[in-house]
Amino acid sequence: MKKHLFILFLLFAVVANTMGQSLYDQHIDAANRGDSKAQFFIAMAYLRGDGVTKDIVQSISWFRKSADQGYVNSQAMLGIAYYEGEKDFSNRKSQTPTVALSDDLADKWKNLKLK
C-alpha cells in the first residue's frame, strides 16, 4: 500500500504546472509527435481538466498511446483506471485506489473502443 501511495504521489507531483502554462499547452505538440512522456501529461491534463475540458475518454486514449510505447507511468494509470472503473477514476479526490469494482466494469474499460 505504501508503495502505491508513493508511486501515485510521484505521478501527481510530476504534473505540477510551470510558468503559468496549462499542462495541455506545455505538452500537446510533443504528444502529437509521438513523445510518450508528453502523451502521459496530455492524459493527465484531460483527467484533471488542466487547459482542456475534463474528458475521461480522451484521458484513457492518451494513456493508452503512451502505455503502448512502454511508458511505465501511463501503464500504471491505466491499471488504476481498470481497477477503479470510470466513475471513481474520473472523479478522483485522492491519490489512493479505492476498493475494486466489479469485473464487468474492469472489462468495459479494457475493451473500450477509443478514437
Strand content: under 5%
From the helix content, strand content and strand pairing, which structural class follows? mainly alpha
- Please give the number of β-strands: 0
Distance between the termini: 34 Å
> How many distinct folded domains?
1
Question: Main sheet, how many strands, which sense, barrel?
Answer: none
Question: What shape does the CA trace take?
Answer: globular
- The overall pLDDT average reads 74
User: Helix coverage percent of residues?
Assistant: 55-70%
The helix/strand series, from N terminus to C terminus, equals: HHHHHH
Number of helices, where a helix is a run of at least 4 consecutive DSSP H or I residues: 6
Rg to the nearest angstrom? 13 Å
List low-pLDDT spans: 93-102
Structural commentary:
It is built from 6 helices and no strands. By secondary structure, it is mainly α. The chain has one domain (2-15, 23-110). Helix 3 (36-48) runs antiparallel to helix 4 (56-68) and helix 4 (56-68) runs antiparallel to helix 5 (72-90). It is globular, with a radius of gyration of 13 Å. It starts with a helix and ends in a 5-residue tail after the last helix.
